[in-house]
Amino acid sequence: MNTISDILIFFVNGVKTELKNPDPELTLLEFLRKHKRLTGSKHGCGQGGCGACTVMISKYNSVTETIDWPANACITTVCSLHGRAVTTVEGVGDIKRKVHPVQKQLVENHGTQCGFCTPGFVMAMYTLLRNNPKPTQRDIQENFDGNLCRCTGYRPILQAFSEFSQERAQNNCIMGKNCCKNGKQNDNSVCDGSNEMKFEIYDPTQEPIFPPELKPKPSAEWSGMVAGRVRTYEHDDNSLEHMPHNQTAIHVSGNTKLIMDTKFGNVKYPVRVSTSRIPELNQINETEHGIQIGASVSLRRVCSYLKTTISKLPDFKTRVFTAFVEMLKRFGSHQIRSVASLAGNIMSASSISDLSPLLLASRAVVTVHDIDGTNRNIDMDENFFTGYRKTCLKNTDVIIYITLPFTKQTEYIVGYKQAYRKEEDSSIVNAGMWVQLTEETQVADIRLVFGGMADKLVLAKKTMAALIGRKWDKSLLELACSQDLLPADLPLAPGSVGGLIAYRRTLTLSFFFKFFTTVSDKLKQNVVPENEIVYQASQIYDITSPGQSENGAVGQPIVHMSAFKQATGEAVYVDDVPKMEGELFCGVVKSSKAHAKITRIDPSKALDLPGVVDFVTYKDVPNDNTWDSPKDFVFAEQMVEHEGQIIGLILADSLTLAQKAAKLVEVVYEELPAVVTIQINILSHTDNFKLIMVMRVDDATLRFKIFQVAASRVLGLPENQITVRVKRIGGGFGGKVARHACVVLPTAVAAHKTGRPVRLVLERDHDMKLIGTRRAIWAQYEVGFTKESKVTALKLTIYFNCGATLGTSLACAERSLLSLGSSCKIPNIQVTAILCRTDIAPTSPLRGFGNPQAVAVMETILDHVAMISGLDPETVHAQNFFCQGDTTAFGQVIEQSSLQDCWTECQKLSQYNTRKQEVEEFNKCNRWKKRGLAMAPLTYGIGYPFQAYNKGSALVNIFKDGSVVLIIGGVEMGQGLFTKMIQVASQVLDVPVDYIRIAETRTDVVPNVAPTAASMTSDLIGMAVVDACEQLCVKLKNYRTSNKPWKSVITEAIGKRECLSAFGYYKPDILGMDWTRKINCPFFYFTFGAACSVVEIDCLTGDHMVLSTDLVMDVGHSLNPAIDVGQIEGAFIQGYGLWCLEQVKMTSQGKLLSNGPGNYKIPSLSTIPRSFNVSLLKTAGNPKAVYSSKAIGEPPLCLAISIFMAIKSAIKAARFESGHTGYFTLDSPATPDRVRMACLDRFTEQFVWDEQQDKANPYFVQL
């Protein structure tokens, strides 16, 4: 008996949900956030790449009972959830009921900052525990390959969740027996390393059960979408024959690929059939030939089954399975592997599929079921993939299973993959290589399959034929790598899609060399197992207290005040605010060109859709269509000046409709030549913004427009009619200082026009096109130095790529020049900065704001000096330190310098001399892996060079019950500002922190505030809080006796009509920067630090691993050492991303390619240093800041240059072994292609012509 229904039934956090004929395109994330008001799951990327939307999905299986897996809600359709149970972060635990141990561990170990990614990490860990209540440390380390964090640097997250590991009783703290976890210390030193369990042990018996109603009947189910309508099918028998057939249907299992096609490729699939519940397609069986894997079996389950099989059978028999297991470690993420299938991977027919090369190399067999009811086997050979995303299968074929074969004693197979990042990244080039040898070790047969070298997989047929019959020795290797074989088999034309022609061709030889070496080692039984990766970390600091009050919390490592809300999903961010009555949603009509005239705009098709209300353009701006410089348009007018520029807004009654309608607006362009790079700007003589000399500048004023002022200008309203309220910010690292105005202001115009609330939510790809990047630079220098490597003179020109408008570029360039003048003592210095206008999005302020560029330039110069002088870079650094009392190039005296102390302490912490010797010894013993070591010093000026910004304000109110509220002129974005200000108020008022809260920042309460930037806000606002609280203490002095409770004091004071409200204000004595003067004081003080990093590079692929980083920072007397350590680690890892991973890819026509997590790679957990040690320097404090503290948000980012320079040092060692000893330039970021091609060896030398052609006709340009 067959049953057909259009009702979907599933559970969300234990509550039954029934949906009648839901929209097949509706994602689980949208359903949770908009329909269920469960906003803990965040919309981070919309591409399944960041993990912020991770949820747990559960199903019932009659054999294994409940099966739980993590899933990306943003790419999971609601239609796939029939009979499933969904658990979100809200269902795990909450503050009112009970916080789950996972959430508590994360909070107590300071694992949150901005908190936007936190729910995703909680759900990933929670799902792991539901599947494995006692995971190993390795299980935990590998569990977060699908979760990204921009703030923390991952260390505290990993430390928090390591408490659940089997090894939790082991103590790996760098302090050893003196670890603070082992008992009372003789002093106040605290080190947070791996430690024993502090909280309740996880008890899996206390978790909710699977909803009994969803336990399936003994029947088969299918769900699908036909002609836009959802259907579920139930049958009394489990036969595959009853599956609905349709020749135009697309069969869906995990849906990870199709949803991306429909969302970003505008591909339409009118008929879809889900095969994920068909029993025959969900089985794995062992046969005499190999392992049969059902078409709908998830890759996670495949991997688990193969591991079990490997452990039971002889090694030689399971070599195919081992190759697949190793490749699956780098395939997607846990979330993706939990739903994606092998059959789906095959049918995607991608030329860079990670698994397909192994399938062809092993000659796997695909068994398909035709619509006529017959089955047939198809070998996966060179004829299987026929073109880009095409296979030899018929439209009526359905894959039933794939058979992976057993291997014979003489067969060997290995898979290779090269990507920008180890985790969650698409291949640049991959390969599957299989060989069968005779007893005499001659090649009986061989298959060499490569991906990423054409629009489909390619077999090196000529090479394969030439190697058959050859003995497996070095002569075979030389033959295969000769120009007539592998290079001839695998050509790439200049300008090919993806670019990196020389690198990709070099990789093909590198992969074969690795394969040859691997097989040779196995023949010699000389296989050395890889060392298991173990992450270790320590944080060493003093817990200090000013000792002024009994209840004061200054100096204590208390947790972030919002941490519990973040961990439970209760923290409210802007798009979490409930929809208001009459609210409209924006669909953005944006430029698809970088430089063009707009000849026509036609919104008629969009306006014809029911539910679309209006179309807003520059013609609707009531006053001024510019908001900063004359070129900063709210809406584009007759011209567009960069891709992604906002042309207009479609307003509709739902976000989905607005976005759909925006795509229907027709914009016709007359395209103009685009200038994208600095080099093209110079060659084309494009008009630039400004020329700055170190001792002179044409205009030193940067008119920063906060949103209130900008909205007043655009709308033509006085500022007192505009209130800006700042909600919680997720990941604010500069883009939200100024460039966010190009999002806020169009929305304000739309609201002004319609008189209704308007919400604008950017998709991640548009956000990256609109907000802009950090400013790329290009520098030319001449440097003079003594034979002792003491720098005596520097002439330097720096070009800044500013984008389409000036924005904050002038201030950024000034900051770079000031940083150059304080990083290295140079008696004679002349620096010129040229700001280049280009047709890319206006560049954005970003953490460090000009300082990282200056640090990179100076490190490059000193490295060059070291090479010519024959000295170590560390010696050259020490020769050129600024010392106490020295005067900088801009005329400020260095006071209270602790640079030498930081340097010495860092050498001690890192065991520098021992490490250096170990690196040298390793390099002597290894040809194709090299290590490098580098130290970096830091002198960082704190303060705004523009005097007017150096101010802070705060309002403190005390209520009748004794509770206190602070409203400050600063923004909390995860950096701990609110927590620190509560600690300061607690210290001055002498009340517990529990009595105090901070209300949201708003301009009608605390007006005319400075930006929250430059690492200066805690200094400025902290002193303002002290001022306000001291005013209140004066008022309360006569009521406060030693024994009187605080609440009684307040009651009495209010009874006496005391005003318990005080406004605090602070303006430090900073003169600012005047470029016409020789003597200046642009900074309030300097902060100092040092770092030492060790890396290991793979000379054949360009991959690198950060083995260790030891970092020492002078933070004065820390207001909160746990928060400061978190800022240090997070900033450092972000700097690591800047210099080693995060490459902005743009075509010469100005089209951004790196527009999401799929092709813009920030650091992941696997990329952080294996050993990461942070120590706060013991100092006398800083008398110029609140409670002797120092700024910390930005400076540590610059110390990550130590990793970049260590990579360069390792490349030097590789080049030396090939006979190349001259100086070379390494551009940042140090991506694998740059590292590999810089190593220079016999493989790279074969593709010199390709590299020249690549530079002449690049697929993407260097900004």
The total beta strand count reads 44
Q: What is the topology, as strand order, of the major beta sheet? A: 7-23-44-43-42-36
| Number of spatially distinct domains | 5
* CATH architecture classification of the largest domain: 2-Layer Sandwich
**Uncertain regions: pLDDT < 50 for 5+ in a row?**
183-200, 218-228, 233-238, 690-705
Strand content: 15-25%
Can you walk through the features of this model?
The chain is α+β, with helices and mostly antiparallel strands and 1263 residues long. 29% of the residues lie in helices and 21% in strands. The chain has 36 helices and 44 strands. A hairpin with a 2-residue loop joins strand 16 and strand 17. Helix 24 runs parallel beside helix 25 (851-869), helix 25 crosses helix 26 and helix 29 (977-989) runs parallel beside helix 30. The longest helix is centred in the middle third of the chain and has 23 residues, at 501-523. The termini are far apart.
